[in-house]
């Protein structure tokens, strides 16, 4: 079986870590659709010896064993489950490899019967901090002090913020969804996000665990679990994605049941899946979805991982999250390509995301969350390790784009502050959707969103700089017409109006202007000041102009904020002359 380029790179990085003296264990971060089972099988094939694969869900054991055997034909394999408690015989004269696929709940109750192994592979490694997993790993190390451990997960960051550094010494590689989309292994997402009303209240909900955890979802449900609001959500879904197989993520179990009821009352075949369901009922619901008998499946954190129905082409987010990893998991449910052998005649070109919690915009947009911006540039001509950075807390090497350290649990401050702004009453009429820009994936410049005059982030104004020049694209409130402005940074001349039209035209014109004025290789996304802290002079000037600089701001961001503030009046005047308005939507 021929590996994909990123798979070959990741397998090589894992083996290098496992064979490095003093690096007893390593972790691979791989999203839905990356083919983690194939990569695990290839690591086992090249490493050899007695391998133990730990899993937490029985339905995955047989599935992963079948894929493993396809890569390692002839290697003896067994299951260690409630029905079959056997370790694979190791016969070096016949095969250099043997593998045992074990359910952790079963094996942890039979540790006295455990046999020595050379390599433990931990599937869904973010579960490995649980006591049963720790006890199993400790027993394996006791039986073989030379043991090596390899873990794979799509969501390394746990909600309880326990870092995985107690188990894993390093992160060998981190595969981004954007890389898979660029390579054609996943479909491309498009997104609509809540415009006004709903997302502002949700973003003001308190975070649990003293502000370090995710939003209090019970409080989220109290805000949005009302029939008129849900009916509005269903109507907007029907308008924008009503012909698509859909998965809906809700805040609580009760919320999920209420949402499913409204969908059903609206004439949509709908199923609901929660952790409280009878397993047989849950399995039948998912079979109905897979067969097309059910169009919408509503859930409360029951299908965030391990659910991979290729027909899902719409994801509705009726719950927020502070964490990119959780959003990536939910969005990933709809990104799988359709296998024509399994679904002949079905065409799936993209996945529509409907975000009613404002998380995508608050976490810098879909392009940033899925790393769409760097996908084409990330794949090197020859496999090599990803760029790394030291964690601010434990100093361990972690992927450059990581926002959370999987080893110690440190969370980098969000790029957009999540403040509890004054709330307004939610009405169904106030809930609207706007496109969330994914066009920036092609630009080499770093565009950032600016808030409106009231301080709220609505995605109506964006700014970028190339060092020698800057450009702004903006749309007046409710107009839907976009304007692009640009100016050379070293002149005192007012910015000039580049173009008026739709968002794509404005972005393309602004991006072309920057490309003519400056070198993106020197002043683009990868330049030094994208990672540099603001200078003291910048901070003083920002304070003088009453621009609040958050702790995690960069020199580039502050320069853009200052530029926007200095030129707001002239841009507003041009908009006023052009459209007879006061330039609402141009940020201060």
Kindly report the name of the CATH homologous superfamily of the largest domain. P-loop containing nucleotide triphosphate hydrolases
Query: Could you say what the CATH topology of the largest domain is called?
Result: Rossmann fold
**Residue share in helix:** 25-40%
At CATH level 2, the architecture of the largest domain is 3-Layer(aba) Sandwich
- How much β-strand is present in the residues? 15-25%
What is the highest CATH level, the class of the largest domain?
Alpha Beta
Question: How many extended strands?
Answer: 21
Number of domains: 3
Low-pLDDT residue intervals, each spanning 5 or more residues: 373-384, 415-424, 580-588
Q: What is the radius of gyration?
A: 25 Å
Number of helices: 19
Overall residue-averaged pLDDT value = 80
Strand order of the largest sheet: 3-4-2-5-6-1-7
From the spread of the alpha carbons, the general shape counts as globular
Structural class: alpha/beta
Main beta sheet: 7 strands, parallel
Please, could you describe this protein's structure?
By secondary structure, the chain is of the alpha/beta class. The protein has helices spanning 5-18, 36-47, 58-71, 104-107, 131-143, 177-182, 198-203, 217-224, 227-241, 253-265, 279-290, 324-332, 359-362, 365-369, 375-378, 503-517, 520-523, 536-544, 555-579, and strands at 25-29, 49-55, 77-80, 97-103, 119-123, 148-153, 170-174, 188-194, 245-249, 270-273, 296-299, 312-317, 350-355, 388-390, 397-399, 433-435, 448-450, 461-465, 469-474, 482-488, 496-501. The protein folds into three domains: 5-30 and 35-153, Rossmann fold, CATH 3.40.50; 186-370, Rossmann fold; 443-579, no CATH class. The strands form four sheets. A seven-stranded parallel beta sheet has the order 3-4-2-5-6-1-7, with helices on both faces. The protein has a seven-stranded mixed beta sheet with strand order 10-11-9-12-13-8-16, sandwiched between helices. A five-stranded antiparallel beta sheet has the order 17-18-19-20-21, with helices on both faces. Strand 14 (388-390) and strand 15 form a beta hairpin. The longest helix is centred in the last third of the chain and has 25 residues, at 555-579.
């Amino acid at each position: 079986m021929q590996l994909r380029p990123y798979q070959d790179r990741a397998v090589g990085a894992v083996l290098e870590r496992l064979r490095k003296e003093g690096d007893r264990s390593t972790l691979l971060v791989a999203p839905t659709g990356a083919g983690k089972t194939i990569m695990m099988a290839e690591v086992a094939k090249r490493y050899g010896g007695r391998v133990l694969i730990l899993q937490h869900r029985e339905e995955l054991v047989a599935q992963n064993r079948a894929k493993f055997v396809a890569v390692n034909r002839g290697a003896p394999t067994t299951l260690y489950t409630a029905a079959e408690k056997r370790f694979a015989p190791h016969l070096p004269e016949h095969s250099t490899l043997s593998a045992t696929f074990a359910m952790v709940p079963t094996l942890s109750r039979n540790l006295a019967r455990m046999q020595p192994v050379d390599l433990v592979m931990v599937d869904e490694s973010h579960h490995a901090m649980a006591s049963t997993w720790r006890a199993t790993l400790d027993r394996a190390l006791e039986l073989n002090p030379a043991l090596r451990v390899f873990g794979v997960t799509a969501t390394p960051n746990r909600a309880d913020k326990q870092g995985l550094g107690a188990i894993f010494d390093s992160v060998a590689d981190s595969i981004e969804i954007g890389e898979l989309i660029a390579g054609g292994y996943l479909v491309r997402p498009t997104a609509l996000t809540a415009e006004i009303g709903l997302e502002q209240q949700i973003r003001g909900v308190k975070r649990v665990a003293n502000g370090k955890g995710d939003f209090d979802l019970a409080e989220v449900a109290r805000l949005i679990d009302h029939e008129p609001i849900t009916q509005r959500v269903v109507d907007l879904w029907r308008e924008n994605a009503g012909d698509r197989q859909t998965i809906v993520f809700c805040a609580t179990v009760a919320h999920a049941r209420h949402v499913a009821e409204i969908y059903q009352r609206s004439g949509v075949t709908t199923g609901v899946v929660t952790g409280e369901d009878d397993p047989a009922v849950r399995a039948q619901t998912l079979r109905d979805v897979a067969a097309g008998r059910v169009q919408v499946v509503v859930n409360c954190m029951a299908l965030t991982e391990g659910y991979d129905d290729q027909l899902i082409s719409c994801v509705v987010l009726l719950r927020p999250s502070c964490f990119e990893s959780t959003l990536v998991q939910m969005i990933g449910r709809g990104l799988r390509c359709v296998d024509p052998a399994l679904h002949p005649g079905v065409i799936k070109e993209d996945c529509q995301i409907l975000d009613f919690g404002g998380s995508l915009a608050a976490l810098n947009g879909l392009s940033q969350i899925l790393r769409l911006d760097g996908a084409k540039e990330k794949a090197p001509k020859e496999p090599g390790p990803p760029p790394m950075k030291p964690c601010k807390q434990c100093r361990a090497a972690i992927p450059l784009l990581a926002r959370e350290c999987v080893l110690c649990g440190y969370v980098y401050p969000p790029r957009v502050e999540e403040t509890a702004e004054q709330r307004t009453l939610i009405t169904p009429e106030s809930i609207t959707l706007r496109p969330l820009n994914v066009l920036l994936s092609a630009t080499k410049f770093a565009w950032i969103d600016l808030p409106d005059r009231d301080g709220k982030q609505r995605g109506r104004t964006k700014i970028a700089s190339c060092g020698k020049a800057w450009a702004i694209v903006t749309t007046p409130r409710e107009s839907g017409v976009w304007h692009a402005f640009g100016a050379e940074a070293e002149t005192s001349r007012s910015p000039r109006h580049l173009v008026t039209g739709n968002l794509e035209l404005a972005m393309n014109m602004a991006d072309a202007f920057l490309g003519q004025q400056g070198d993106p290789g020197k002043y683009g996304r990868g330049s030094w000041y994208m990672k540099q802290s603001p200078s003291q002079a910048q901070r003083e000037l920002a304070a003088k102009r009453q621009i609040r600089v958050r702790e995690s701001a960069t020199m580039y961001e502050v320069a853009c904020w200052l530029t926007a503030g200095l030129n707001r009046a002239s841009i507003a005047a041009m908009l006023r002359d052009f459209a007879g308005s006061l330039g609402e939507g141009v940020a201060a």
